[in-house]
Specification:
Elements (H helix, E strand, L loop, with lengths): L1 E2 L6 E2 L10 H36 L5 E4 H6 L9 E4 L5 E5 L2 E5 L4 E6 L1
Antiparallel strand pairs: 1-2, 3-7, 4-5, 5-6, 6-7
The structure holds zinc ion.
Zinc ion (ZN) binds next to loops.
Length: 113
């Protein structure tokens, strides 16, 4: 016996049937979409916050700040738009138009496109 994915009711009929009713299908799909929207919105907020912090610390040319300053501003190092490694093996991170990398002394150099 198959069970409805939303309410768990037992169902008869076609073996590929997943829901007992349109209402259950809609409820189930709405929950899935809401979850996806929440994930996207959370990541977007983290990235926007990081970008705002980089923008506030950056001044013309190259700007070097301590990692702890970024942490005080609640910069989240887990979120960036892309990353790459240069010839020396140092990882450079991008957050929209900003590029930043860390040296061995925990200084962060910020550049802007
Ligand atoms: Zn159901």
């Amino acid at each position: 016996m198959r069970k409805c994915l939303e309410c768990g009711a037992e169902m008869e009929g076609r073996s590929d049937k997943k829901f007992c009713s349109d209402m259950c299908r809609n409820t189930y799909n709405n929950k899935l979409y809401r979850k996806a929207r929440n994930v996207i919105s959370y990541v977007n907020r983290r990235l926007a916050s990081n970008r705002r912090i980089l923008d506030s610390l950056y001044s013309d040319g190259r700007t070097t700040v301590s990692k702890s300053l970024l942490e005080e501003e609640r910069f989240d190092f887990g979120y960036y738009t892309s990353s790459s490694k240069n010839r020396l093996g140092r990882t450079t991170y991008r957050c929209y138009e900003f590029t930043y990398s860390s040296d061995k002394h925990n200084n962060i150099t910020i550049e802007k496109d």
